[in-house]
Specification:
- InterPro entries: Hexapep, Hexapeptide_acetyltransf, Trimer_LpxA-like_sf.
- 17% of the residues lie in helices and 28% in strands.
- With 181 residues, it is of the alpha/beta class.
- The chain has one domain: UDP N-Acetylglucosamine Acyltransferase, domain 1 (3 Solenoid).
- The strands form 4 sheets. A 7-stranded mixed sheet has the order 2-5-8-13-16-18-19. Strands 1-4-7-12-15 form a 5-stranded parallel sheet, covered by helices on one side. It has a 5-stranded parallel sheet with strand order 3-6-9-14-17.
- Strand 18 and strand 19 form a beta hairpin.
- It is globular and about 55 Å long.
Length: 181
């Protein structure tokens, strides 16, 4: 009982620390502190204010990636984000949720992988165990329950293919990061 209470207290403190980090004024300061919590994040990343990260030590973010305001990054089961990924404002990426068939409402989940050049538009939701393929686009408000093939554009609830994306992607999003926002 006491061991469980201590673990809950530690988890609550870590959640508050990550919350404070998310409102600091500079990307480099936020990245530095997340790295201190064992997150693997390139220095050439833009993490905009108000984000939420769970289990930062299980988070990996590649070079040139931008994470928008109020994005939720649930890394409890592992979250790998590639290079030059655009995660827009208010995106939610979940790696753990509850099993609705469980009599005890047990948790279930798997890691999420977002490959290079993917674009997750505002307010899209990625559920546990999903891989978003290279260059794929998830439309605003979509709920992704299954893997998305490379260079595929998906939208809707649940997300379904609506288009194909150009494969000739060479941009570097780190050039677009505003230093103080």
């Amino acid at each position: 009982m006491i061991k469980n209470s201590v673990a809950k207290f530690k988890g609550s403190c870590l959640f508050m620390v990550c919350g404070v980090i998310s409102w600091l004024p500079f990307h480099t300061l936020r990245i530095f502190l997340l790295r201190a919590l064992k997150a693997k994040i390139s220095w050439r990343v833009g993490i905009y204010r108000g984000f939420e990260v769970r289990s930062p030590w299980k988070l990996k973010v590649g070079r040139g990636t931008i994470i928008g305001h109020n994005a939720l990054l649930d890394a409890r089961m592992g979250l790998i984000i590639g290079n030059n990924v655009n995660i827009s404002n208010e995106v939610m990426i979940w790696t753990l949720h509850h099993d609705y068939n469980s009599s005890t409402f047990a948790q279930a989940g798997q890691a999420v992988v977002i490959e290079d050049y993917a674009w997750l538009c505002s307010r899209s939701v990625i559920l546990p165990g999903v891989t978003i393929g290279k260059g794929a686009v998830v439309a605003a408000g979509a709920v992704v329950t299954k893997n998305v093939l490379p260079y595929t554009v998906v939208g809707g609830v649940p997300a379904k293919q609506i288009a194909i994306r150009n494969r000739d992607l060479t941009y570097d999003l780190s050039d677009a990061v505003l230093p103080i926002i």
